[in-house]
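Researcher: I'm comparing several assemblies side by side, and this is the next one on my list. It has 780 residues spread over two chains. Same procedure as the others: predict the full complex and return the structure.
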Amino acid sequence: MYSFEPTEEQKMLIDTVARYASINLRPASHDADEENQIPINLIKKGWELGVLQASTPETYGGFGEHSSVTGVLAAEEMAYGDLAGTLSVMVPGLFAIPILLAGSEEQKNEYLPSIVEGDWSPYTAALIEPHYDYDPNELKTTAMIDGENVLISGEKSYVPFAKEAKTMIVYASLNGQTQGFIIPNGLEGIQIGERQKMLGINALPVYPVKLDGVRLRTGNRLGGVNGHEFSPILASLWLATAAMALGVSKAALEYAINYAKDRDVFGIKVAQKQSIAFMMAEMATEIEAIRVLTWEAAWMLDSCKDEAYKEAYLAYIGAADMAMMVTDRAVQILGGHGYIREHPVEKWMREGRSFAILSGLAII
Amino acid sequence: MIEFEAPKPIAQQNFVLKTVAENMMRPVSRYFDEHEHEIPWDYINFMHMAMKATGAGSLAPKDTPKKDAEGKERPRIGYQMLAFMLEMLSWGDVGIYLCTPGGGLGAAAVQANGTPEQQAKFLTRFGEEKPAFGAMAMTESQAGSDTSAIRATAVLDKENNQWVLNGEKIFVTGGQKSLEEGNGLVVVWATIDPTAGRAGMRPFVVEAGSPGIKVSKMEHKMGIRASDTASLVLQDCRVPFENILGSPEVAQEKTTTGFKGAMATFDATRPLIGATAVGVARATLELLKELLAQQGVTIRYGLPRQKLTSIERDIIDMEVMLRSAWLLVIKAVWMADNRKSNVMEASMSKVRGGDVVTKITQRAVEIMGPMGYSRDLLLEKWFRDAKISDIYEGTGQINRLIVARCILGYTGRDLR
């Protein structure tokens, strides 16, 4: 059957997240971006909503099952409030979800309960690399097996909370395959650089990480000595990106609508001009189209369909274009006011460009 | 629960329709494109037999849901079935699909606006021995998207208890077949009070063989050439009083009930036009990928944009467009089946469908270069066939207007 109706449980979760997004995240959004920092209490409050906890089974300290559909619903709703805030709240997931999806039983038992049952605390993952043709399936960071050990060398970029994180997953190419490695922070050969400054998402602390022959036991390979498949992890990264792009786009459209309905021009409201109204109709159509595509990809991933990987990629590519189109137009509709930092649309436009590039900052 | 699994009956239906599309449509696609106004009777007779066997008279789904063995109501999937059917037949050939017997838009209007008696009287013909066709006549030379400018009139002749219709209609899809090939009907929109604007607009059923109506012209078109597009002249055309759909009174206060009747029909049919657009787009993209594969071009999914070739990037964008447009159609018809108001979603699916099929077919011809421009391939035909999806049953612009009013909470007066 087809259905576009979330379950009652999902609706309750969305409602809770939506309240947090508009009551807590949004009012703090502007200052957080200006001051490059999100209040830690705000992050903790978001963590306590229990999004990650709800997608972790009881055995590992949670109270639900992993569901990509629930994940995309929640991520869209939270990103509607603030993107950097969402990424901060979700950062432990960047470490925990790959372990849940691909980790060995031992790894799950070792890490998941303490993360899921505890307060928010920074765990992270390092995937992105500083090259124009950065490709998660062809990483330049390499892993080499040396008997009982693995040696990892390379450069990573935009690693959220790298400085504070206790442990991180570093992705590296092992014989041409992308594999994750669980690395305790502070190991010899790891060097965390100065915090990086970006076009947007300023409130999220991100760092470059250099790995110079970091030596690990092979048991630290995600999934155990035999490793894991990378494609389900990549698909879940793409879907998180698509979902957050939807949230930011929804926020930008809504703001543009309210502004255009309020602003007088030539004796009527701006929204009553077809040139503006049509722009907004197209924005709304684009968002709705990419939303159903993202939902379908998430459903395919949950139902283990063969096409899930491709569909998640399509959703991600479509979402990147949607977010750029929608946020650009939101600025345009506000005209000069859109360019002023008092209004949030210029911030959303700067964030709008990130989705095509920074898949790897969150996972659902 | 959010789900994307096509129900079993749809999968079964699709299997059969694919055979029809491959064996009865594609082989004659080029022939009927080059022999405009010839009628594809083989396809028509086959479809009539098949649809009669399943009891489908008009294509529009029945109001009462089917029941299972225990008497429990099955979920309604009528519009979803229809969307899948139209998508697949349009994948075969959208011009030939438009010749499908059954009531078409005419029957849809009877279904949306008629009483049970009228539905029985006018719709049973589509399940009879010989195929019959239905059409909707709305557009006039001075009244396209602006239907309030319709000038055709209906005057009540009280003595004979008949309506007398006068006027000229253009762009009637299937108009010729509805009036001249079998016992069909045309639903004609006319005003019963020219001073009342939209409030005076009413649909009238004009059956084939009625005196005073005739086909005055058959258009020569860019595409969908297998489908006839007729002009109809009504000169003192008389129909029985009970052929009016909806109330014969013009309400005292300014209402637009009559007009809304037409629009309700469109809420149901717009996603279906979206479905036909998606069918043409899918045919195009599939052929394009096949032709490229023959040239050794494969598409690498999963790469960052910076590493894609221009052709890969085009194809991937086309896949995003196609899939998302199709899912918008599914959502709109799922809402119709579940009796949820789908005005906005119906228009969104029409906007998106019209957009993506024009972009995809135009890009496909470009990518195949000189071969794309040749009539050896069907790509150039689909390029021509595609454009109509962005025009008929509400242009892309009219549908943007509807979406805009919905998201802004505006009436037609607020956003003109």
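Model: For your comparison table: Chain B has a mean pLDDT of 91.
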